[in-house]
Amino acid sequence: MEKLVIQKAVVEDAAVIHSIQVEAFKPLLEKYQDFETSPANETIERTITRLQQKQTDYYVMIYDKITVGAIRIVRKDNRRYRVSPIFLLPEYQGKGIASATMQIVERFYEDAIVWELDTIFEEQKLCRLYEKLGYSKTGKITKINERMTIVFYEKELVWI
Description:
The protein is of the alpha+beta class and about 160 residues long. The chain has 4 helices and 7 strands; from the N terminus they run E-H-H-E-E-E-H-E-H-E-E.
């Protein structure tokens, strides 16, 4: 995907990251009514706080010179990393950008032995995306409301 550039974000990117996050998650918020947990309801201050966390790296996805999404990586203990969240503007979804971004970003963290993430169980296209990338369900689920369940995934890397 030669039109895709993954660039480390800085605090000055907070407004664009927040704007894309709200737009990306708004359809899911409307569908699942998860007002307490939806990234579409988060404030820009929350984005700024995350950008300033020492254990967090944000990257923006620039596709054809347009910032179309972002991904947040959280460094945990024992060479574990968490994707939380990854999001794209609705009009850029389904083009392979998220998949390519995940593959690129995972290579940035050569010491990783486990990757973690979670997604909405009812959004089977998202589940399939992560499963195609080698993630497996952990068995942990969290019921958010009568419409929505969060399912947790892990990807263990084996180094030879």
